[in-house]
Amino acid sequence: MLGGSMLVSVVCLRFGLIPQARLAFIVVIVFVVPYVPVVFIAYFRRHRVAAVLRSYPWREHACSYAPRATGIQATIQIPFSETYASAYRLIPFPLDLATIENSHPDRIWFAGDPRFGGVVSPVGGHYPVRAVPDKVPAEGWQGGDDVLASRVGLRRRSGKGTQT
């Protein structure tokens, strides 16, 4: 879209159509340029989700949801063992995974490292969403591969989980 509008501006300038070139340029500046950072961020987030799904297998877990005042589920609580449960926020915005094409609202698929987050989806894996720990760092989980978590973008160099 950005390249096409700029191309129209250049063609209009080439053929002496200054008002049309000006209009095409203004359209690009007003309607396209503000979305460039959004597209850029979405592109890298999509690659992080893909890297997590290539490196970690889906595992089915029981889950519970903590609702907000608006009714949308703010966090997902996943018990990974009898002694460890972690709460995750869905990013870039909260989704109600309990109702999105989910025949098992009390179960969820999780791919990632319980300490640093990962990707969650309703059972079936058809709606993957990035999940980050609600509390950083998530403490109490023993095990995990720090190098793998760093390589796929779940863990920063400081040892904390990423929040985006």
Describe, in plain words, how this protein is organized in 3D.
This protein has 164 residues and is of the alpha+beta class. Helix content is 33%, strand content 24%. A seven-stranded antiparallel sheet has the order 1-5-6-7-4-3-2, with helices on one face. Helix 1 runs antiparallel to helix 2 (18-32). The longest helix has 20 residues, at 36-55. The radius of gyration is 21 Å and the shape is elongated. The chain starts with a helix and ends in a 13-residue tail after the last helix.
The count of domains is: 2
Regions with pLDDT < 50 over 5+ consecutive residues? Answer: none
**Number of helical segments?**
4
**Estimated helix fraction:** 25-40%
* Strand segment count: 7
User: Could you tell me the strand content as a percent range?
Assistant: 15-25%
**What order do the strands of the largest sheet run in, or round the barrel if closed?**
1-5-6-7-4-3-2
Decide which structural class fits the backbone: alpha+beta
Radius of gyration: 21 Å
SSE string, helices as H and strands as E:
HHHEEEEEEEH
What's the layout of helices and strands?
Blueprint: H1 2-14, H2 18-32, H3 36-55, E1 59-62, E2 64-67, E3 73-79, E4 85-91, E5 107-113, E6 117-121, E7 129-133, H4 146-151
Antiparallel strand pairs: 1-5, 2-3, 3-4, 4-7, 5-6, 6-7
Helix pairs in contact: 1-2
